């Protein structure tokens, strides 16, 4: 049977080459994603950066540790605590203490991530004066980077300063460094960007005035004596050696980057794995279905059903082994290039490379082989059960394309999608807004619709081709009848289009719909006429706030960003974003979506929560930890709807210690002149560089956008999946066209010219692409309808956003691909005489 299978492979090269290409590329995709995922599981050991040569760093409490029945739960504090004054006094007796301060700086012409520090801390980092000298006066600074030169005067949100020197990183051994934002620079030379931040150094006195609060300090003393001095001070840390990296800004950025990459590769692996399995199974099933006449002849010649099944499985085994091995080789070649592209695009840290894991190759190879065999099992079983005369009769016109097993499987998947949607809407609508949900749900519907496609292909094809069929001539009628008669061929070609359109429409449409819902939510909740925002992340200073509050005709609500932590079920420490505000001004400038209680009831002994909290009954008391780790029992004053998930909690400023005011909402008093108030607000923030926005400007400015990493990751997932489905579409078109050589010859013998036949082939390809596009839009609509329903139940109604531009581009690409890869093989075949083609054996 193996020898027969090998001869068949040689005789039907096009069909088996098509199956080989689809499987090899699918296995390569799985291998690439598996290798990338395996390489994103561990980060290299971090090294200290800013304090690489510091003897000892003492850091105030920056984590909340809550004991539970299953261990200690830990969370980063929103407002880390300073080292207690008593401890600082003890440490000063041991040696020289240098207080560290970090604050955001905005400078005209400078990088957007400038950070200010005291000059004395530069001695503990691998810095070296590159040009100029150290700062000596309050208006003098030293900078890193080449954006300013010594002698220049630079305007910043902290006042105009004069650059007196520049520094560069030394001793890192790195020629190229990649920051968290993906910006790169050459270390060494004139002035280079450090690998960890863009810095502005002030004299210590000026830095202390700009940032009075210090949460860590450097000490030149014996580490053992330092630990003895801080003993008994809860949360205070003594950092030495490599542990000094925890005093750097964002010390966990490598692990956070790995977590983000892990999630992205997990999503990409799931999507590409699904697409690969879907396309490979469809291609192999179509390849077997094309050979019904051949199976009929074999049955007539005396072949038993078992022999046919074994022959088909042997062919799939040969193709599967060769294609899977080829796919693994392609995966080993492509994975390092994907990793390099992600590093260059800022999606991965500079150290990210592909490791030497072997399990992705096993996963890809055996998955490919398993899918190849599964793709032909059902078709081979049906071919073996068909009687010889019946098989020959079915060879020209598709009948019984919808088998009972396929129908039951499709209905079961469709019912599963419907039941899970209803359960989510009834139980937890917010679950439908999570990325893992709106990424996975389309796969279920795509598979269900693809399985049930033969039921709708014929009527849908007739509907789409109805108008062309009414035009003069027989072309439109032939397009309609050919596409409707070849149900299996039409469904197989439409499958890649279906998955392409459905994935692009569902994933991009889900993010667009969710972003629109968040924007609508912001618009509904903003009752202020103006919103004032600070120039930097440090918030407003006291003088600016005083000036804003003195503006005549304005109701001013100054709010701060903080956090509140709560222990749920006794074991889960959850963090909720919090805003601190005075209840009176808050009620005048904000329309909170309160469903129980009143905003005005908020006081220093209470909190406003949302329905996502385990306890959300007005009057109940909940144990919480504030942003600095202080434990309190607060009464629930009001409960908000869940919304899109952005409704955090509200507390008073007293319950957000250390949180700077980062937003001021302003409502006009009765009879106040809007232009006069706006002018007064701008005058009040002129010195600090703040920005005054109208309500409409604020809503536009705060409109949520998918962050760069998520957006690029989503485009990566879609790009890889769509490229693969595009190649598979071309592959399937070549296979389908090669199977129709005799049909094309009959048309030529009937009097059709060569160009008429090619136009007919192209029109049929466009019709089938339209069928796949309609089915893909159906899946997109069903997915987005579920999200729209969930948003309505969460009191965040919005409109469904279908990404028509992206869908149109995808459909256009599919149409061009289908036409080219159907017309070109047909044109090549038609170079031979029609009589010769009509006699070609299949």
Characteristics of this structure?
842 residues; seven-stranded mixed beta sheet; alpha+beta; ten-stranded mixed beta sheet; 25 strands; 52% helix
Rough shape? elongated
- In helices, the fraction of residues equals 40-55%
Work out the helix count.
24
Radius of gyration, in Å, reads: 34 Å
Strand content: 15-25%
Query: Terminal Cα separation, in Å?
Result: 20 Å
Number of beta strands: 25
Structural class: alpha+beta
Mean pLDDT: 81
Major β-sheet profile = 10 strands, mixed
Oligomer: single chain
**Low-confidence region ranges:** 172-194
Structure description:
There is one protein chain. This protein has 24 helices and 25 strands. Strands 16, 17, 18, 19, 20, 21, 22, 23, 24 and 25 form a ten-stranded mixed β-sheet that branches. Strands 5, 6, 7, 8, 9, 10 and 13 form a seven-stranded mixed β-sheet that branches. Mean pLDDT is 81; it is low at 172-194. 52% of the residues lie in helices and 16% in strands. The relative contact order is 0.11. The longest helix is centred in the middle third of the chain and has 40 residues, at 305-344. With 842 residues, it is of the alpha+beta class.
Please render the helix and strand layout as text.
Blueprint: H1 2-11, H2 13-39, E1 56-59, E2 63-68, E3 71-76, H3 85-92, E4 97-100, E5 103-104, E6 114-118, E7 127-132, E8 140-144, E9 153-156, E10 159-169, E11 176-178, E12 184-186, E13 198-202, H4 204-210, E14 216-219, H5 223-230, E15 237-239, H6 253-289, H7 292-300, H8 305-344, H9 359-385, H10 388-394, H11 404-427, H12 435-464, H13 466-470, H14 475-485, H15 487-525, E16 530-533, H16 542-549, E17 554-568, E18 572-580, H17 583-589, E19 594-597, E20 606-610, E21 621-625, E22 631-640, E23 649-651, E24 661-668, H18 674-685, E25 691-694, H19 695-701, H20 708-738, H21 741-749, H22 754-793, H23 804-829, H24 834-838
Parallel strand pairs: 6-13, 8-10, 18-23, 20-22
Antiparallel strand pairs: 1-14, 1-15, 2-3, 4-14, 5-6, 7-10, 8-13, 9-10, 11-12, 16-24, 16-25, 17-18, 17-21, 17-24, 19-22, 21-22
Helix pairs in contact: 1-8, 2-6, 2-8, 2-9, 2-20, 6-9, 6-12, 6-15, 6-20, 7-10, 8-9, 11-12, 12-14, 12-15, 12-22, 14-22, 15-20, 15-22, 15-23, 16-18, 20-23, 22-23
